């Protein structure tokens, strides 16, 4: 979509959400939209439906819920001074979070606001005569279905509402699955197959249907001792995966990390993503979240540093080591690490032209090198190039302590130091941002083609233990990353191996919690987490929502265990 969609957001106004029982938009005076053509009005109505996705996918919202609650990410109380936040990140990792957790509340509110905006669009677009209004109407229904999938996945319920003046009906389990399915099937013939990854397309509908069918066993009975994956559901996963693969619209990327570059919007592997191109005012903080406060990825911005946020758990790191032994994972698998600074392999390369400076990508371990800042400016070599060297914790006033990321990270004093935990730099730092640190152009991926192959592989394993077909799909993805030497082919395939492979392919892409639940791993033990309560598979409904719905007795009940 064009930049003008953001400008025209005022045609529908912003939502005020105090209670989940009243998911209403406040529509501004129509005079604010006077002089617009029907096409412009339609664009202005659909824009807000997508506009909250960047907020939902911020690092402290959806990411925190989907990753810090798992064996992939952990965020300790850094140095006893940073990321304390009343213990919410410790509790999220240990599965002791409560209904007052602000990240859970913010994520809930943003999703419901997005759903409300979808309903506003569904009611407004039929009044317009431009042909685009019909396409946008289908997209609005598709986004309502997507937001419903998020609430079903995280909170175990779906709000059903068509009229802005009525209270939502709450549904769960099989009824919720069937509702989302019916909505997606209804728009399948109506959406455009070629609108790009930032909008609901035919490929997105197929992908969401495949994901819905794959997780339907969990959604129907989220607290089950053992999930029942129906053969007919698995057939549907294969059917919709085949539609995407055979469409010819998408292709696997040769370069794994290009999937997460600033210019990834046009990467053919992306099916559905949060559109954060520069003209849409992207707010992508994923690039700096995990880095050290003494890592500065942008020569143009001496204040654009990391925040010493989460690291990967030792448990997750060890899966890489075990799978690739005796080789180091950085050598064996191009998804693990990409070296951009030559000083790591040649200590003499300590001067780098500013335009050529790029921080390493992937999982960062050990001593870190980079731009050296003194008194607020970067040091330069005599020839004017940027000085690159060994990094110390200067911004923490610990100039003798090296920025050397360690494998061990936990909630002890030693394990919570600023250097603990291997870090993740998957998304590229924006080189065009006006602030460097807070904005970014990289689209945040919701669904990509590699996931489609992996879903198809899993469905075949679950239905009939077709290990040969599943192995072929997984190896096809591994072999596709030919920009460097791809990971070697696997020789066997089981559900446990597929779960491990999904971790390698999609780490920190906000799929892990959903995967762990589906594979029966979420009640396991890792790092600082020992809680085995299956009620933690879904999050608590925020207490503010419970309180706001108290005027209707029995309408909104708290999830079990909270």
Short description:
With 562 residues, the chain is mainly α. The protein has 17 helices and 16 strands.
Uncertain stretches: 1-33
Looking at the structure, the CATH topology of the domain at 38-249 is Serine Threonine Protein Phosphatase 5, Tetratricopeptide repeat
Strand content: 5-15%
At CATH level 2, the architecture of the domain at 38-249 is Alpha Horseshoe
Major β-sheet profile = 3 strands, antiparallel
User: Could you give the count of β-strands?
Assistant: 16
Output the CATH class name of the domain at 38-249.
Answer: Mainly Alpha
Explain this structure to me?
- The radius of gyration is 23 Å and the shape is globular.
- It has helices at residues 4-7, 38-51, 53-56, 62-68, 88-94, 102-124, 132-155, 173-187, 202-220, 231-247, 314-324, 329-332, 449-464, 467-480, 495-506, 512-518, 543-548; strands at 158-160, 169-171, 270-274, 337-338, 351-352, 361-364, 366-367, 369-371, 373-374, 377-378, 386-390, 392-393, 398-402, 404-405, 423-425, 444-448.
- The longest helix is centred in the N-terminal third of the chain and has 24 residues, at 132-155.
- It starts with a helix and ends in a 14-residue tail after the last helix.
- Helices cover 36% and strands 9% of the residues.
- Among the domains are: 38-249, Serine Threonine Protein Phosphatase 5, Tetratricopeptide repeat, CATH 1.25.40.390; 291-429, no CATH class.
Show the helix and strand layout.
Elements: H1 4-7, H2 38-51, H3 53-56, H4 62-68, H5 88-94, H6 102-124, H7 132-155, E1 158-160, E2 169-171, H8 173-187, H9 202-220, H10 231-247, E3 270-274, H11 314-324, H12 329-332, E4 337-338, E5 351-352, E6 361-364, E7 366-367, E8 369-371, E9 373-374, E10 377-378, E11 386-390, E12 392-393, E13 398-402, E14 404-405, E15 423-425, E16 444-448, H13 449-464, H14 467-480, H15 495-506, H16 512-518, H17 543-548
Helix pairs in contact: 2-6, 2-7, 6-7, 7-8, 7-9, 8-9, 9-10, 9-13, 10-13, 13-14, 13-15
């Amino acid at each position: 979509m064009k930049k003008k969609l953001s400008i025209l957001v005022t045609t529908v106004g912003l939502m005020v959400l105090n209670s989940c029982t009243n998911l209403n938009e406040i529509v501004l005076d129509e005079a604010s939209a006077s002089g617009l053509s029907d096409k412009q009005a339609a664009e202005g109505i659909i824009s807000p439906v997508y506009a909250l996705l960047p907020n939902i996918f911020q690092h402290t919202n959806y990411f925190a819920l989907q990753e810090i609650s798992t064996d992939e990410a952990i965020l300790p109380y850094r140095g006893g001074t940073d990321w304390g936040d009343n213990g919410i990140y410790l509790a999220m990792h240990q599965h002791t979070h409560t209904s007052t957790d602000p990240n859970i509340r913010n994520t809930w509110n943003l999703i419901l606001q997005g759903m409300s905006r979808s309903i506003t669009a569904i009611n407004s677009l039929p009044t317009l005569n431009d042909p685009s209004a019909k396409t946008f109407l289908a997209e609005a229904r598709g986004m309502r279905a997507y937001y419903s999938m998020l609430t079903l996945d995280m909170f175990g319920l779906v709000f059903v509402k068509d009229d802005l003046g009525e209270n939502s009906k709450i549904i769960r389990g099989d009824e919720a699955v069937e509702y989302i399915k019916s909505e997606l099937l209804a728009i399948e013939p109506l959406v455009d197959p070629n609108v790009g990854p930032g909008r609901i397309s035919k490929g997105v509908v197929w992908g969401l249907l495949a994901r819905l069918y794959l997780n339907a066993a969990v959604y129907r009975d989220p607290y089950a001792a053992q999930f029942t994956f129906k053969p007919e559901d698995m057939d549907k996963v294969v059917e919709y995966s085949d539609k995407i693969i055979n469409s010819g619209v998408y292709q696997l990327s040769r370069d794994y990390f290009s999937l997460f570059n600033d210019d990834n919007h046009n990467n053919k592997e992306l099916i559905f993503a949060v559109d954060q191109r520069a003209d849409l005012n992207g707010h992508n903080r994923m690039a700096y979240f995990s880095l050290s406060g003494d890592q500065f990825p942008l020569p143009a911005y001496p204040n654009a540093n990391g925040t010493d946020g989460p690291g990967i758990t030792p448990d997750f790191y060890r899966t890489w080591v075990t799978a690739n032994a005796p080789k180091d994972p950085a050598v064996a698998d191009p998804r693990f690490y990409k070296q951009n600074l030559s000083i790591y392999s040649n200590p003499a390369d300590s001067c780098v032209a500013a335009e050529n400076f790029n921080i390493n990508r992937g999982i960062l371990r050990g001593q870190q090198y980079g731009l050296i800042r003194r008194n607020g400016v970067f040091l330069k070599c005599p020839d004017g190039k940027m000085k690159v060297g060994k990094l110390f914790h200067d911004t923490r006033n610990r100039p003798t302590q090296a920025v050397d990321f360690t494998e061990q990270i936990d909630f002890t004093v030693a394990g919570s130091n600023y250097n603990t935990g291997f870090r993740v730099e998957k998304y590229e730092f924006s080189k065009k941002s006006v602030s460097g640190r807070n904005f970014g152009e990289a689209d945040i991926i919701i669904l990509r083609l590699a996931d489609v192959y992996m879903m198809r592989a899993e469905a075949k394993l679950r239905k009939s233990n077709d290990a040969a077909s599943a192995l072929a799909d997984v190896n096809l993805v591994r072999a596709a990353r030919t920009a460097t030497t791809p990971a070697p082919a696997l020789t066997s395939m089981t559900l446990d191996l597929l779960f491990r492979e999904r971790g390698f392919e999609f780490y920190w892409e906000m799929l892990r919690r959903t995967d762990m639940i589906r594979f029966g791993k979420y009640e396991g033990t890792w790092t600082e987490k020992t809680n085995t309560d299956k009620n933690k598979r879904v999050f608590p409904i925020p207490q503010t929502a419970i309180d706001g719905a108290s005027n209707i007795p029995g309408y909104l009940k708290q999830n079990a265990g909270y």
